[in-house]
Amino acid sequence: MAKGNFDACLKVILHHEGGYIHHPADPGGRTNLGVTQRVYEEWVGHPVTEAIMRGLTVSHVRALYKAKYWDKVQCEALPAGLDLCVLDFSVNAGTGRGAKFLQRLVGAGDDGIIGPRTLSLVEQTVRGRGVDHCIMAYQDARRDYYRRLNTFTTFGRGWLRRVAEVEDSAIKMIAPALRGGA
């Protein structure tokens, strides 16, 4: 599975999340390095200013990404490549949604909490179909999700580009033994 792949995945995520933005059509509001002001305030336990949000660095947000996203959706227990896809979608659309899409992919009940049953089904699915199949199916489900959003006309092209680029990065992370199933 994806032991020690957090830093490689975070690098891809941060490439797509970029720096400070505050787009009027983005319901997330002020965001820097992919972290919304609301999430950062929850993390630090107090309100923060625009200047603080603008000044965030990777060292400020690394532990947040690990605890609130990577650990929450059990990425450490997922195969390399699939961990990136689940992490990226969880960052972009919420950990519950990221987990549910993985659960649907492997035929688990989609309660949004990745536990032993989901992880066992992930292992079976990867063994049977290959992690490359899982990555492509997960990313296809993401594309469908984004196309249904009412903000697709504003952000859709960027979302679809991100999904494609994350898919390419994820495929490159696959261990050769996990390609194409048994």
Spell out the CATH superfamily. Chitosanase, subunit A, domain 1
**CA distance, first residue to last residue:** 16 Å
Helix content: 55-70%
Q: Quickly name the level 1 CATH class.
A: Mainly Alpha
Order of helices and strands: HEEHHHHHHHH
* CATH structural fold name: Chitosanase, subunit A, domain 1
Number of strands: 2
Write down the overall geometry.
globular
- The percent range for strand residues is under 5%
Q: What count of helical segments does DSSP give? A: 9
Major sheet? 2 strands, antiparallel
Structure classification: mainly alpha
Task: Walk me through what this model shows.
The protein is mainly α. It has a single domain, classed as Up-down Bundle (Chitosanase, subunit A, domain 1), CATH 1.20.141. It has helices at 6-17, 37-44, 50-54, 58-71, 82-93, 95-106, 116-129, 131-147, 152-173, and strands at 31-32, 35-36. A two-stranded antiparallel ribbon has the order 1-2. Strand 1 (31-32) and strand 2 form a beta hairpin.
Which helices and strands appear, and what pairs or packs with what?
Blueprint lengths: L5 H12 L13 E2 L2 E2 H8 L5 H5 L3 H14 L10 H12 L1 H12 L9 H14 L1 H17 L4 H22 L9
Antiparallel strand pairs: 1-2
Helix pairs in contact: 1-5, 5-6, 5-8, 5-9, 6-7, 7-8, 8-9
Keywords:
182 residues, mainly alpha, Chitosanase, subunit A, domain 1, two-stranded antiparallel sheet, 64% helix, globular
Structure in a nutshell:
With 182 residues, the chain is mostly helical. It has helices spanning 6-17, 37-44, 50-54, 58-71, 82-93, 95-106, 116-129, 131-147, 152-173, and strands spanning 31-32, 35-36. It starts with 5 loop residues before the first helix and ends in a 9-residue tail after the last helix.
